[in-house]
TrEMBL record:
Keywords from the UniProt entry: Oxidoreductase
Molecular function in Gene Ontology: oxidoreductase activity
Pfam families linked to this entry: adh_short
Highest taxon listed in the record's lineage: Bacteria
Protein name: SDR family NAD(P)-dependent oxidoreductase
Keyword Transferase: no
Lineage of the organism: Bacteria, Pseudomonadati, Chlorobiota, Chlorobiia, Chlorobiales
Amino acid sequence: MNTFTICITGSTDGIGLAAAKRFAAEGHRVIVHGRDDFRISDACAAIVQSTGVEAVGFVEADFTDLDAVCSMGRELAERFPGLDLLINNAAVYMPMRTLVPEGYETTFCVNYLAPVLLTSVVKPVLIANGGSVLNVSSMDHHSAVFDSGNMQGERSYSGYEAYARSKLFNIMFTIDSASGDGPVRPIRSNSFDPGVIATKLLHAGWALAGDDVSVGGDDVFETVMVAIAKHNHNGEYFENARAAICSSVVRDPVARQELRELTGEMLSRFEV
């Protein structure tokens, strides 16, 4: 069995923490990410209590702060040179439109810009180790449209549409990363939907019960084992650990190019 050194963003609760526990229990080296010391400490303790195994380390960054995300990426690359799997899991659902200090809409920043930036910063280490990226998306991406004039809900906003858009963008980014479209240096990348899981995000957006978070954690694990460790998939979208069909918008090269160029402008100051 391949043993991974994994950073799971948003791994202090929900699916991220459940996945961290499963990977640790299976002998993988887990790096916890959270937005503050208290959540990180509680998560690390929960992993030990559940598995008897300690996380190999942790990193801290609030994904509403892109400078913090960039610093986190550099810390990851420096402290964990063996990093070979990044799971971009951290996400929010915002019923009302709010802006981060830099002026971006919160859902767009946390769910899309932050993982793009983080991936870009750690990509050299991942490539050197023959590693890969797994982006947590959602089947809700099927309902989203690509409209460059309303990417951040500038004209009209709903929490659901903002969330679905961000998950659409995640898969578009996945395909670009996998293929090396544009100036992007390719890295093996896949995305997946973890199912209807009882997380805070699900309760906030849909008021549904959902499956226990352990089911979501298991789905992350199985997707990695099937898509990455066993079959070397690249540029695929998964549901229930099986390759699935994604939205036609995702497969539109013109839309992906426009998103890629707009994203590049937004992140240009980081020079990554």
